[in-house]
Amino acid sequence: MLRYETLPVTPFQQNCSLLWCDQTQEAVLIDVGGELEMLRAAVKQRGLKLVALWLTHAHIDHAGGTGQLAREEGLPIIGPHRGDQFWIDGLPQQSVMFGFPPAEHFTPTRWLEDGDKLQLGKSEVSVRHCPGHTPGHVVFHAAEIERCFVGDVLFAGSIGRTDFPQGDHDQLISSIRERLWPMGNDTVFIPGHGPESSFGRERRTNPYVRDLRGA
């Protein structure tokens, strides 16, 4: 079965997630924004074998440490969708703009598409393309544990910003309603910032996307 730990990193307190298979001890880090020594220590403390880095999108607080960690540890970078190529190309400039440590440019080992499947140990994780916050944003759905790692698509009580380049508010709302809600009301999501919530709770109470007909 899959297990996970949330590890906030960077001054933006971005929720990097350590996800692993408890049978094989193979692990991935989702959204390596920075603080690499702390992330390495968390992997080592649990006796895990880090096999890949997964990205929901390429904003600096989610991807700023990805290139360096992949290079130093010889790890593949999986995701996001190709729509975020321009954000990856701009990571060095993003790091200067937001006062982050220098971010390395990288080329993902594998771009992701809607409906892709990823294997982690003995478990499978589904990929959904959820544009709106960025054009190439993806989420990772671990159905066996009713969890979804949603990056900056959805938050407890809020939604992702769409005022960055190539953000699209209507597209974001459609992504949430058409691609997240079908995962089920009981599914708990791990957002890019802040506390966890469930899709059912957000359908009932989130002012941006609540279902007025009831969840």
TrEMBL record:
<protein>
    <submittedName>
        <fullName>MBL fold metallo-hydrolase</fullName>
    </submittedName>
</protein>
<dbReference type="Pfam" id="PF00753">
    <property type="entry name" value="Lactamase_B"/>
</dbReference>
<dbReference type="InterPro" id="IPR036866">
    <property type="entry name" value="RibonucZ/Hydroxyglut_hydro"/>
</dbReference>
<keyword id="KW-0378">Hydrolase</keyword>
<keyword id="KW-0479">Metal-binding</keyword>
<dbReference type="InterPro" id="IPR051453">
    <property type="entry name" value="MBL_Glyoxalase_II"/>
</dbReference>
<keyword id="KW-0862">Zinc</keyword>
<feature type="region of interest" description="Disordered">
    <location>
        <begin position="192"/>
        <end position="215"/>
    </location>
</feature>
<dbReference type="InterPro" id="IPR001279">
    <property type="entry name" value="Metallo-B-lactamas"/>
</dbReference>
<feature type="domain" description="Metallo-beta-lactamase">
    <location>
        <begin position="13"/>
        <end position="193"/>
    </location>
</feature>
<feature type="compositionally biased region" description="Basic and acidic residues">
    <location>
        <begin position="199"/>
        <end position="215"/>
    </location>
</feature>
